[in-house]
Amino acid sequence: MSAPNTPAYPLDNLHRVETPEGIDLNLHPAGLVPRALAFAIDLAIRAVLLIALGTLLAMLGGFGIGLGAMLLFAVQWTYMVVFEVFNQGRTPGKQWLGLQVIHDDGTPVGWASSLTRNLLRFVDLLPFGYFFGVICCLWHPSFKRLGDLAAGTLVIHRQPAPASVQLPVGPERPPARPLGLDDQRTLVAFAERAPSLSPERRQELAEILAPRFGVAPEAMESHLMDMARYLVGRS
Amino acid sequence: MRQAHFERLHRPGWNAFQHSLLALEKGRRQDAAADRFPADYRRLCHHLALAESRGYSRQLVDELRNLATRGHQQLYRHRSLLMAKVLGFITGGFPRLVRAERGVVTCAFALFFGALLLTAAWVVLFPEAVHAIVPPEQLSEMEAMYDPDETGHGRFARRGSDTDWSMFGFYIMNNIGIAFQTFASGLLLGLGSLFFLLFNGITIGAIAGHLTAIGYHQPFWSFVIGHGAFELTAIALAGAAGLKLGVSLIAPGHRTRLRSLQHAATRAIRLVAGAALFLLVAAFIEAFWSSTQTFDVAFKYAIGALLWLLVGLYLGFAGRSRATE
User: Which residues does B263 contact at the CB level (< 8 Å), separation at least 6?
Assistant: First the structure.
């Protein structure tokens, strides 16, 4: 029914990537708020780290101050990069919020792109308080800031693995006439989602189809479930 | 084949694949069936394509897609041969890159060193001009630092090895920070890099000219000549990387502006990494060699000249034999 290139779920904000294996991956770009929260957590971690190390090293005199300055530098400029490269695109803040940095093509982020996006953060901070970064993030369909644009990276939500669903056992009934792929998919999706819907809502949704199948409205729900069981097959 | 049959047939394989995935995601490579992973991944992609084209339920397709996405992440992981990469970069990659980008590099060097030398000459000829450029507090601080009349050579005579270390840390933080800034602001159509190159060039030139004009030249030049070779070159190179970003946006050629920027950024970031390495060397020299007072001034000048020559030879000739790679 739908043209092959239109997204299956037009309302979802998906970033689609076609892989060399010929399949489409659907990535879920993370918006401004989770990214800001992740950044705030990382900022807090760095602040605590530096204060703790600073007080410790200040007791060591000049050598300690030198070491402290180097550490300050290292933490300031490499914290994000090191975590992103070695921890599969996740700084502690991002991990906490279930975010991940990846390349536009869905591959894990590497040294060059991680360094690029984090050094260019300086421009996102301009002219004050992440102004450019926020504007760019809100404007871009995949919520990229300027550093992401230049580095070709993307921050996504890590999707939890969906649990597989079994349809409740019951009679099977073949559809009276052949159904198209989209119709079949819709029907099975309805049956699989049924446990999460209230009985009234299930009834309401099923009744829409009643005239089309020529079945009494109150019998339509079980009729649909039977057809869905037929389409999925006996397990 | 109906969905339930398909699932029953392949579910064990998917579960095994998920098991490997979990192990890889936690970094336990030995627990994953790593040798079978690519084949398993391809089979999973095949199953996903089948599930979609046969109109299996959204639930199943989503589950397989989730596995495929995570498998994709693991299969296309970059190899982290960090040491080999860094060594290759130092021994040849970096100078080759600098030579390949000679357009922006020449431009940045001309801007930075041009501004530096012109301002220095200007201030030597018209000493009062320095007050228009450098704020008075900074100027008096510089004068105190390089004052030859103090016992020994200014404040360096009073420095112990303790201070060497603290200055080393400070130089690293300060200078590499400046270099990163000079690079990053190039994203603003190159204007930021242009500004920082000229600003730093003019300030350093004015101070150098001023200290020469008031007769502090010996402590000043003998101090800066050594690490200057690495430090000034690195600032100019970081500026060149920033200019490259700017040029890629202004004149993207046959690419879109975004693609052009991404292409330029992959090369520019390597220039910046090289500049950061240079600054590391510079900070080391500055903290532990430039400040020593035990050697004759002529010897320090000689070493300084040698370092400049070394930087020139390195950027000009290192890695030429493998240039065809």
Answer: B248, B255
Question: Helix B58-75 to helix A181-193 angle, to the nearest 10 degrees?
Answer: 90
Spell out which residues of chain A touch residue B242, defining contact as CB-CB under 8 Å: none
Report how far apart, in Å, the C-alpha atoms of A20 and of each of A7, B39, B62, B84 are.
19, 14, 19, 29
Report DSSP letters for A21-46, one per residue: TS-EEEEEE--HHHHHHHHHHHHHHH
Q: What are the extents of the domains in chain B? A: 3-75, 82-317
Q: Is B272 within 8 Å of chain A by CB?
A: yes
Kindly state whether A1 is in contact with chain B, defined as any CB-CB distance less than 8 angstroms. no
- Kindly indicate the confidence band of residue B247, based on its pLDDT and cuts at 50, 70 and 90: very high
Q: What is the largest CA-CA distance in chain A?
A: 88
Mean pLDDT of A43-59: 86
pLDDT bracket for residue A191 (50, 70, 90)? confident
pLDDT at A141: 86
In chain A, the residue whose alpha carbon lies closest to the alpha carbon of B261 is: A150
Prediction ipTM score: 0.78
DSSP-derived secondary structure for B68-105: HHHHHHHHTPPP--HHHHHHHIIIIIHHHHHHHTHHHH
A43 or A165: whose pLDDT is higher?
A: A43
Task: Taking residues B299-317, report their average pLDDT.
Answer: 89
CA-based nearest distance A159→chain B, Å: 7
Q: Are B242 and B190 in contact (CB under 8 A)?
A: yes
> Structure tokens of B269?
């970031």
The residues, ordered by sequence, that sit 6+ positions from B248 with a Cβ below 8 Å of its Cβ are B257, B260, B261, B263, B264, B265
The full length of chain B comes to 325
DSSP string, A46-80: HHHHHHHHHHHHHTTHHHHHHHHHHHHHHHHHHHH
Length of chain A: 235
On whether the CB atoms of residues B168 and B288 are closer than 8 A, the answer is yes
Q: How far apart are CA A101 and CA A34, in angstroms?
A: 13
Q: Which of B47, B65, B165, B188 to mutate: most A Cβ within 10 Å?
A: B165
Q: Given CB atoms, is A27 within the 8 Å cutoff of chain B?
A: yes
Task: State pTM to two decimals.
Answer: 0.77
Q: Which backbone phi and psi does A115 adopt, to 5 degrees?
A: -60, -45
Interface residue A125 vs chain B (CB under 8 A): no
d(CA B79, CA A111): 10
- Which is nearest to B231 in space by CA: B158, B177, B270, B194? B177
Query: CB A119 to CB B73 under 8 A?
Result: no
Separation of CA A216 from chain center: 42
Taking residue B137's Cβ as centre, other Cβ atoms within 10 Å add up to 8
The DSSP bridge partners found for residue A27 are A15
Burial tier of B316 (Cβ tally within 10 Å: 0-12, 13-18, 19+): exposed
| CA pair distance A179, A187, nearest whole angstrom | 10
